[in-house]
Fold:
Amino acid sequence: MDKSLGDILDYLNSHPQIAQNTIILFMSDNGGLALNHARQGIENRDANAPARAGKGSAFMGGVREPMMVYWPGITKGNSICHQKVIIEDFFPTILEMAGIKNYTTKQTIDGVSFVDALKNPDNLKERTLIWHFPNLWGETQNKEEGYGAYSAILKEDYHLIYTWETQKLRLYHIKNDIGEQQDLASQHPEIVKQLSKEMSDYLRARSAQRPSMKTTGKIIPYPDEL
Structure:
């Protein structure tokens, strides 16, 4: 992948006219592997340290990943933008980049364009992110480390994780605790309640699939129904 990206950049460098009319969006689909291939020698961290866990996990090590944007005349080299984005944001962003305004879709668009943030990195908008993974992940079902069926919400600096199988809610403040070692759920029950409702309402509005228990066949409750 590194070579392929390098080949594209080399081609653009040798064809400046094409480069000036080309936008590159580069983003990982998840955090790095942290279970069986810990290249850095840090168990369950890998290159995601100090974030906890990695690919497939609900923790920051699984969902917080690098992203780069090359947009001639807009983005500047060595600049950093702290806007929170999620992969669903790519669709409306690319449409706006291409100047497409009048369009219709059959599906609801969950994403929000981040063009404004690219044009002005200081123009940040508060963005609540929600992840929903109602399935089992292949390599491990270590629920303690955030693997398996989960839903999560990140609002401001609070990250709430709901593990469907155990019906457990965990709360972390990622600005103060990027490694997510201190579960604050018992200390801030009102925040847990608020975020649980917001996440549950989001899932209900989209008729999101919910997992069921194999032993009983019953669908597991939404987090705000516990």
User: Anything to note?
Assistant: The CA atoms of residues 41 and 47 lie 9 Å apart. The chain has six helices and six strands. The two ends are 44 Å apart (CA to CA). The longest strand covers residues 150-155.
